[in-house]
Amino acid sequence: MSVIHNERTKLLANSIDRASTSCVTVGVLAPSAAAIYTAPGTFVSSSIFLIGTGIWLFAAIALHLAARRTLSGLKQ
C-alpha cells in the first residue's frame, strides 16, 4: 500500500512543480521577451513590470517549496 501512496505523492509533487515552472514562464520569461521585442512607441511602466514579475516569481517559489514539502510525505 505504501508504494501506491508514494507514487500518488510523487505525482502530486510533480504537478505542483510543473505549475511553478508555468508561473516562471508566464510571469517572468514572457513579459521579458515582450519587453525586448515590442514595437517602437509602446511603453509599459517599469515599476508595474517589476511588481508583476516579482509576484509571479514569488508564486513560483512558493509552489516549488510546496512540492518539496509534499515529497516529505513519502512512506518507507
TrEMBL record:
<keyword id="KW-0472">Membrane</keyword>
<feature type="transmembrane region" description="Helical">
    <location>
        <begin position="46"/>
        <end position="67"/>
    </location>
</feature>
<protein>
    <submittedName>
        <fullName>Uncharacterized protein</fullName>
    </submittedName>
</protein>
<keyword id="KW-0812">Transmembrane</keyword>
<feature type="transmembrane region" description="Helical">
    <location>
        <begin position="21"/>
        <end position="40"/>
    </location>
</feature>
<keyword id="KW-1133">Transmembrane helix</keyword>
